[in-house]
Design brief:
Helix 3 (75-86) packs across helix 4. The protein is built from eight helices and no strands. The chain has helices at 11-20, 31-36, 75-86, 122-135, 141-172, 181-216, 220-225, 228-240.
Length: 257
């Protein structure tokens, strides 16, 4: 049959022949359903739509990715990549991506970078730059990027100033603010460091006890589970039972110097 196996498509036909020749007595449970709704029969994949213009030069051999869908790219992609490469920390700012009716893009007009229903972010710079390139005659890509960035910096500075003044006014009228995100992070880090310090001290003590047990013959697990004071008492008790130099051991053998 070559590359393709047509037997799955002929399963209903095969079952019908088996019933006619009485090879099988009862039809399978799927027989009626497959007869009413036969499986699809496209065996050759169609070539996807070509979103990119092909070169007019004929190819001498078949492309290895002929049936792979073409990459869909937009003009904003290059502008967006350039902006966030220069401003990576803009990606760390929280963003609201919930839309009410899905038509927010129809409510924006980037004749100016600030939009009444959209917060200022990196996407505002991308859309403003694209609008300048399409509507301002004679402006270059770099010129539109610099102009959009300058407007973005001015508005960002204005927002920071308004936020700082509002905080000073609130403090002046008796408002009390809790710890900042930086303070909370430092507090959590200090607590984790103290827990690690206690754990490290225990590990050092256990390592020292294991090294001492190597010369006394005491079980390592017993000393490791004991407290530091109890560990020292066990070491003293074991050291008293070690015969001195020249003293007879319990087996009758003398300990040689």
């Amino acid at each position: 049959m070559g590359r393709y196996d047509f037997r799955p498509l002929r399963v209903h036909q095969t079952a019908t022949q088996l019933l006619q020749t009485e090879r099988i007595v009862n039809p399978p449970p799927w027989y009626t359903a497959v007869g009413n709704i036969p499986p699809a029969e496209p065996l050759v994949r169609a070539q996807p739509l070509q979103h990119q213009q092909k070169s007019r030069q004929p190819r001498t051999k078949k492309a290895s990715k002929l049936f792979m869908p073409q990459m869909i790219t937009y003009e904003e992609d290059r502008l967006r990549k350039e902006f966030f490469r220069d401003h990576p920390w803009e990606l760390a700012r929280p963003r609201m991506i919930i839309e009410d009716d899905g038509r927010d893009s129809y409510k924006t007009n980037y004749k100016q970078i600030r939009q009444p229903e959209k917060a200022l972010n990196g996407e505002s710079v991308v859309q403003r730059q694209l609008w300048l390139q399409l509507n301002v005659p004679g402006i270059s890509k770099a010129g539109a990027y610099d102009r959009a960035r300058k407007e973005f910096y001015d508005l960002r500075l204005q927002e920071d100033t308004e936020r700082r003044v509002a905080k000073e006014e609130a403090l002046h009228t008796g408002a009390q603010f809790g710890p900042s995100a930086m303070d909370i992070g430092m507090q959590l880090e200090d607590e984790e460091y103290q827990r690690w310090k206690v754990w490290a001290q225990r590990q050092v003590e256990m390592q020292q006890q294991r090294q001492a047990a190597m010369y006394t013959g005491t079980d390592t697990g017993d000393i490791a589970d004991a407290e530091p004071a109890e560990g020292m008492a066990v070491l003293e008790e074991v050291s008293d039972s070690i015969p001195a130099q020249g003293q007879s051991a319990e087996g009758g053998a003398t300990v040689r110097p």
